[in-house]
Specification:
The chain has a domain at about 110-305: MetI-like (MetI-like fold, Orthogonal Bundle). The chain is about 75% helix and about 0% strand. The protein has 13 helices and 2 strands. A two-stranded antiparallel ribbon has the order 1-2. It is globular.
Length: about 350
């Protein structure tokens, strides 16, 4: 009898060792897939930009393009590297990237690294806040609906979730601006600070509320319905019925048996929805004039700013791949029944 705790400890250590080995294999497989994907995607950006019908020199000169002669245009194209084949431009950019140089942004007239340094924190603030709000809202309302299937809270939550999911993100953003900023004047219309003023903590919070809640609203429905389904399924499971039979309090049943089982599907959905979160952030930032990466992404695409466009595309893709890996790794540890052979 005295050896059973020892055996349990050894068994627990063995399971964790096996999980770490599976996690290492999962990371190795994702890296082996992700790196060639990023390389191919960066080359594809340069290829598609070179095949674009837009003239990068015209985008660079703007209205002054019409006032230049053909000889001046050829000279400028040579000086700016517009006449270089796309594969040579990509190779030059890739070799500089390996040395830590992201290139020079023509549109912003500064290094691409400085564009990231100025704008990335704003995007992380908006997306991170929206994701936290969406996850917490889905957990609270999904749990309430799942614990009482068929009740009026369940019917309201389910129907609102389905309705919001059917509305395009840009419609939600425009509707939020119209109702809460223009008509009710509860929140600032755009930007991260008042015009002509430096950003302050209070000002940033006031300007963040509406775009963050709008972006969160675009992510809540799938998360909400996933939590609701998982909680309703866990509510009728054998461990929950056994806990209730032993007289465990309802709060302990929910926190100790229902929610842990329901978190794994939520983590998976969060990882799967990351691409939509990135797309939603682009739309929301543009509509609310938020000073994040999205504006730089749109500007780089319009002006065919190759180095900035390639760097932004790779960065967003890498974030999605990393988020998917983190979600799968978390799911691996949350549910012992899941295998890493995916």
């Amino acid at each position: 009898m005295s050896s059973s705790p020892v055996r349990r400890i050894r068994s627990h250590r063995t399971r964790w060792r096996d999980r770490r080995r599976e996690l290492a294999g999962l990371v190795a497989r994702r890296v082996a897939i992700g790196l060639p994907m990023l390389v191919g995607l960066s080359a594809l950006v340069f290829l598609l930009a070179a095949r674009s019908p837009f003239n990068p020199l015209a985008a660079y000169l703007g209205a002054g393009y019409q006032r230049t002669t053909e000889e001046q245009r050829e000279s400028l194209s040579t000086a700016l590297g517009f006449d270089v084949p796309w594969w040579r431009a990509w190779w030059s950019w890739a070799t500089d990237l390996l040395q830590g140089d992201l290139g020079w942004s023509r549109g912003y007239a500064m290094p691409v690294s400085e564009v990231f340094a100025e704008r990335l924190p704003w995007t992380l603030l908006l997306s991170g806040t929206a994701l936290v709000v969406a996850v917490l809202s889905a957990l609270v309302w999904g749990t309430v609906a799942g614990l009482h299937p068929g009740s009026w809270p369940d019917r309201i939550v389910t129907r609102v979730g389905v309705l919001v999911q059917a509305v395009p993100p840009f419609v939600l953003a425009l509707g939020s601006v119209t109702v809460f900023a223009v008509i009710l004047r509860w929140a600032p219309v755009a930007g991260a600070a008042a015009p002509g003023e430096a950003p302050t903590f209070g000002g940033v919070v006031a300007h963040l509320v509406l775009p963050a809640c709008t972006l969160a609203l675009t992510q809540i429905p799938w998360l909400l319905l996933a939590v609701r389904t998982a909680v309703a399924r866990a509510r009728g499971s054998e461990p929950v019925r056994a806990a209730r039979a032993r007289g465990v309090s309802p709060v302990r049943v929910v926190t100790g048996h229902v929610l842990p089982v329901s978190l794994a599907p939520l983590v998976t959905i969060v990882g799967a929805r990351l691409p939509e979160l990135v797309v939603g952030a682009v739309l929301v930032e543009e509509i609310f004039a938020w000073p994040g990466i999205a504006a730089a992404l749109v500007a780089s695409a319009q002006s065919l700013d190759f180095p900035l466009l390639a760097a932004l595309t790779l960065a967003t893709t890498a974030v999605v791949l990393l988020g998917s890996l983190l979600a799968d790794s978390t799911y691996l540890f949350l549910d012992p029944r899941v295998s890493a052979d995916v």
